[in-house]
Amino acid sequence: MAEIDQRLAALLRAGAPPLHDPIFRLRVLERRERQRFQRRMALALVAGGAAIVVAWYGYATRADSAHRIGVLLLYMIMAASAFMHAPVVAYFVRRFLDAPAHPQRS
């Protein structure tokens, strides 16, 4: 079995990138940045969709223009707030979920 393990380890090492491969690091950073951009765009599209729905609701209920603008601004502020604070909230939720349980005091 040891021979098979050694051969498998050698094959895995042969396919791995070098320890200090700058091109590999750039590709990883590029992929992470692309993922961030896609998340931000998705959030922006959802916020834009919500604004359209709110505007349509204002027209459908025949609300006056001041009310429509006020509701639209409120939703835009909420969307901007969610857009800016979502990473922080996600960080703290992940940190809370990964935290070890508190030991029992006796």
Describe the structure.
The structure is a single chain. The protein is mainly alpha-helical and 106 residues long. It has one domain. The chain has helices at 2-15, 22-60, 65-98. α2 packs antiparallel against α3. It is elongated, with a radius of gyration of 25 Å.
The rough form would be described as: elongated
Radius of gyration: 25 Å
Uncertain residue ranges: none
Residues in β-strands, percent: under 5%
Largest sheet composition:
none
Strand segment count? 0
Descriptive terms for the model:
mainly alpha; 3 helices; 82% helix; 0% strand; 106 residues; single chain
What's the arrangement of secondary structure elements?
Layout lengths: L1 H14 L6 H39 L4 H34 L8
Structure summary:
Helix content is 82%, strand content 0%. The protein has 106 residues and is mainly alpha-helical. The protein has one domain (19-98).
